[in-house]
């Protein structure tokens, strides 16, 4: 289950609550992945420079919401105001590999990153998936420019061997502030149609729908029905369309589309494609806007998808476990085994993480798999961690093996408990008691008073 968000946040700070945006209260199974594409994230020069060194406020915000629920930030890419975040549940991490990011500037003839696309691609259970968040040129008259820019973004290539081009991925999700408008009709007709919920009257004049009928490179993209109000342009903190002097005509600027490669290949063949041959399918379960969010002149749009995969990977590359009972009072051991074809490296490491860790660098401590190895057999190896590195207070933790060659976590343990360091805790309690016993005498007269 994949939940995808697109939102032009208009340089605003994160809202107090995103429960409904992320469908956190929805009944039924929880999401396996969250993909969040934002546009117009605040990118003032001072912010941009600090964002290069630290996570920006939106990334920190979504990590704070999702990490306690068992999701880690798998990847992120930022280009000025464009931000793309991908979160996944712990259980899927060993089966998500070959993660790469890319960005393409199209503003100012390709020199400026206020418009363009940011992309994250990966292999998910052996299938190639690509997420593309775009911010295309604005204004009614720039349809051709939007199409040209999107074609340019599609042509960009990932760096690295054996990485398919954007359109060669098994599934490509394309979303963002695509800025397509409603052509021909006047503002009064558009608003009247919206007020009467007769959205279908506007669909045929939606510039993206019109372009999909003409442009070959768009025809394989699928979109759910636009059964929600156009998401642009609103007065802030309201559900009232633009009352400023410009009175912008409402439009479905914020969209989510997808493309399944084997369906495209099938369409070009005469024979029917049997269900057995289809190894991946995408189902749209929900395509809605969220009117309650008013921090920007756009309303966020979400798509909830079911991805049905025939797993091409069934076993993790590395299996690892804590040896025996772990305590902060003594050195501890980790045992792990790797499949024969695993491309290990001297730079691989095993991290100790709190259960609610936010991303791969959020480890408590780590051990190098080669430098800290203490035994090795054909079937398994052992690595030690020093007691000095283990948190004294103990708690719930897990272990994850990070592959330097694959730049990702390739094995993760079940959560386990570390017992606290009783010696230190008892010592602290004794010190507290002693300090209490040695309170100044003048406190006694104060008590009598």
TrEMBL record:
GO molecular function per UniProt: inositol bisphosphate phosphatase activity; phosphatidylinositol-3,4,5-trisphosphate 5-phosphatase activity; phosphatidylinositol-4,5-bisphosphate 5-phosphatase activity
SUPFAM superfamilies reported for this sequence: DNase I-like (SSF56219)
Matching Gene3D superfamilies: 2.60.40.2840, Endonuclease/exonuclease/phosphatase
Any GO CC annotation of this UniProt entry: ruffle
SMART domains referenced in this protein's UniProt entry, alphabetically: IPPc
Record domain Inositol polyphosphate-related phosphatase: where: 1-313
InterPro entries: Endo/exonu/phosph_ase_sf, IP5, IPPc, SKICH
GO biological process, one term: negative regulation of phosphatidylinositol 3-kinase/protein kinase B signal transduction
Domain of life: Eukaryota
Family in the record: Belongs to the inositol 1,4,5-trisphosphate 5-phosphatase type II family.
Name of this protein: INP5K phosphatase
Lineage of source species: Eukaryota, Metazoa, Chordata, Craniata, Vertebrata
